[in-house]
Write a structure and sequence with these properties.
The strands form 2 sheets. A 7-stranded antiparallel sheet has the order 10-9-8-3-12-1-14. The protein has 430 residues and is of the alpha+beta class. Helix 4 packs antiparallel against helix 5 and helix 4 runs parallel beside helix 6. It has 8 helices and 14 strands.
């Protein structure tokens, strides 16, 4: 057999000698593997062996790098799992604290609808103060009914008056009992809620009964001789003017107003149009002074009227340079300019008395509601003269009614327990 090239014998020799050499090499090196590397016919066996060794080292380095990367990712995953466990535990604690008992949840829903409408309950002292003001208002209205019944003797009217008077006396006893319980710390939050619901339910019934009696006076008084009463700060008690405002480049808005609500008497009126809820608003909110808003532009008014007495106020404005004037009890108390200049009051809106609108005709917030009494709300599409304003404030027989909105019972719809009854401020002045 002819001999071949030396390079072709390397794989064959390694294959034949491997079984024989393995045990001998294994004694000194332990577990051993043999790697066959093909070598070109004219190649160097030593060079090929060195090349194979380099490739193995590179592979080993790559494997080590991959292993290190896997370990790092595993550590990251473990950390993330620990973070998730911590967040899950915190979420569980939050959920367990926020769970309400069935009775409490039901009371919360009813609270927003049937009581004051606020997200949180007002302090007990403020609630008692409001109840006291409401009782005083009911007493005043009963006194008016007494005068009416004396002039129009009716045994039915007198009997109803006596029943209502007894109910008011019972209410006063309930309020006094509640004050004593609060002072002694006997009332739990749930008991306080139940007591509050009972008292407000009785008040609502009384308002309705008295309103029914007062309807009997309607035929015996002029159509403008009435006032609106908003006894509680709610998000459902208001009046709506049936007529909208036209486009106006000037206006005068005047009214009689009475309030001692604190902090702030709220919103006597608001006018909203599509796309602009604050087209024209008069508001006293929180501890801020009374403000007038026109197209969301604001001017602070120098009124001092939160004393529980009747006051006559007027605000005039013209779009030219945004000039405005404020009158209290017939006297100009302030003026300014640059209030929404060259912005005409837009037409086709909704005019609400007693609430501030966040949406067209709605979106009421109890904290901005008006608490008090309001009468002779008139609107003109021009600036009144100081003499005309004085005539209104002094109840002159020559005083003009508004040529845009005139104060008349037929022009007003009332909602949520707001009431109408005979206006007495001008009678007291005359």
């Amino acid at each position: 057999m002819a001999a071949g090239p030396p390079g072709s014998l390397v794989p064959l020799l390694l294959l034949l000698l491997g079984p024989a050499l393995g045990p001998a090499l294994g004694q000194g090196l332990g577990q051993t593997r043999f790697v066959c590397t093909s070598v070109p016919l004219d190649g160097d066996v030593c060079a090929a062996s060195a090349l194979g060794t380099g490739s193995a080292e590179e592979l080993k380095g790559t494997v080590l790098q991959l292993r290190e990367t896997v370990l790092q990712q595993k550590e990251t995953i473990m950390n993330q799992k620990e973070t998730i466990r911590e967040l899950t535990a915190k979420l569980g604690r939050c959920e367990s604290q926020s769970v309400l008992e069935p009775g409490e949840a039901k009371g919360r829903k009813g609270f927003a609808k049937n009581t004051m409408g606020d997200l949180s309950r007002p302090p007990a002292a403020e609630t008692l103060s409001q109840l006291g003001q409401t009782l005083q208002s009911l007493k005043t209205r009963l006194e008016n009914l007494e005068q009416f019944s004396r002039m129009n003797s009716s045994s039915q009217t007198n009997n109803l008056k006596d029943i209502l008077q007894n109910k008011i006396d019972d209410l006063e006893k309930q309020v006094l009992s509640r004050v004593n319980s609060l002072e002694e710390g006997k009332l739990s939050p749930r008991n306080e809620s139940e007591e509050r619901g009972k008292i407000e339910s009785t008040l609502t019934s009384l308002h309705q009964r008295i309103s029914d009696l007062e309807k009997g006076q309607k035929d015996n008084r002029p159509p403008d001789r009435f006032q609106l009463t908003f006894p509680l700060r709610t998000n459902y008690m208001y009046a709506k003017v049936k007529k909208s405002l036209p486009e106006m480049y000037a206006f005068s808005i005047c009214m009689w107003i009475k309030s001692n609500a604190s902090p702030g008497m709220g919103t006597p009126f608001s006018y909203a149009v599509p796309g602009q809820a604050n087209e024209l608003v008069l508001i006293e909110w929180g501890n801020n002074p009374m403000e007038i808003l026109i197209n969301d532009k604001v001017a602070k008014l120098p009124f001092v009227i939160n004393d529980g007495k009747w006051h006559h106020i007027c605000v005039t404005w013209t779009t030219r340079d945004g000039v405005w004037e404020a009158y209290q009890d017939g006297t100009q108390t302030g003026n300014g300019e640059n209030l929404a200049p060259y912005h005409p009051i837009k037409p086709q809106g909704v005019l609400v008395l007693g609430q501030e609108q966040d949406t067209l005709g709605g979106g009421f917030d109890a904290t901005q509601a008006f608490v008090g009494e309001l009468a002779h709300f008139n609107v003109w599409d021009r600036k009144l003269s100081p003499g005309e304003v004085y005539g209104l404030a002094t109840c002159s027989s020559k005083a003009l009614a508004g040529n845009v909105i005139a104060w008349a019972e037929s022009n007003i719809d009332i909602y949520g327990g707001a009431t109408k009854w005979t206006f007495e401020a001008c009678r007291q002045l005359n």
